[in-house]
Design goal:
The structure is a single chain. It is built from five helices and seven strands, in the order ββαββαβαβαβα. By secondary structure, it is of the alpha/beta class. The chain has a single domain, classed as Rossmann fold (3-Layer(aba) Sandwich). A seven-stranded mixed β-sheet has the order 1-3-4-2-5-6-7, with helices on both faces. The longest helix has 17 residues. The protein is globular. The chain starts with 5 loop residues before the first strand and ends with a helix. Bound molecules: guanosine-5'-diphosphate and magnesium ion (MG).
């Protein structure tokens, strides 16, 4: 397997020149604790690239990682964690909305990560609607698929598929690496 280069460039809060340097941006979004950092790490095969935070809701920056010296992975703050204060949650939400709605970034796509076991939450649904309404290309990842038993897996994936109205779903696990090849194709590695 070819070597993937991945390096952390910077974390930004609000507008910054890196957002507009013309490189393609692949934004990873999802609820806090959904396994976003672990997924980014497992995609690029670096254990600690996107820090796997033990305190959900800690990250409020947009973290930029340069992949293969060509494009960025952007780690967005996780949304919808119950333990963050209402004010903080509002700030997180505003930042995510700003990034997708008002920042006017042209070259990008999104990877929306949901928990395979929990399924599509109202906040996930809201994100799906924002991406659709703003015509941003995206794929949905049903993460932590390793937590589902053989029998549950197919049933749960069908349910998620129905909730997402036929959007593309990739089942994934950072532990077993299921879905890694398929997701790599979507994100150009
Ligand atoms: N079973 C399982 N657990 C995972 C997986 N990915 C992440 N986790 C666990 O979920 C928790 C949150 O992971 P993290 O990557 O920090 O999530 P983030 O908050 O979305 O960035 C950690 O305890 C991880 O070990 C996965 O694919 N399968
Ligand atoms: Mg994280």
């Amino acid at each position: 397997m070819k070597n993937i280069s991945a390096k952390f460039i910077k974390g930004v809060i609000g507008t910054n020149e890196i957002l507009y340097d013309g490189k393609f941006q692949i934004a990873f979004i999802g609820r806090s604790n959904v396994g976003k950092s672990s997924l980014i790490n497992s995609l690029v095969m670096k254990k600690n690239l996107a820090r796997s935070s033990s305190k959900p809701g800690k990250t409020i920056r947009l973290d930029f990682f340069l992949i293969n010296n060509k494009f960025y992975f952007v780690d967005l703050p996780g949304y919808g964690y119950s333990k963050v204060s209402a004010k903080r949650y509002d700030d997180l939400r505003k930042m995510i909305l700003w990034y997708f709605l008002y920042s006017e970034i042209k070259n990008r796509m999104a990877v929306l990560i949901i928990d395979a076991k929990i399924g599509v939450t109202p906040l996930d649904q809201e994100m799906i609607n924002i991406l659709k309404e703003n015509k941003i290309d995206f794929v949905i990842v049903a993460n932590k698929i390793d937590k589902l038993k053989m029998g549950q897996k197919e049933k749960q994936l069908k349910k998620i598929q129905a909730e997402c109205n036929g959007l593309k779903i990739i089942s994934y696990s950072s532990i077993t690496k299921e879905g890694r090849k398929e997701l790599m194709k979507e994100v150009f590695i």
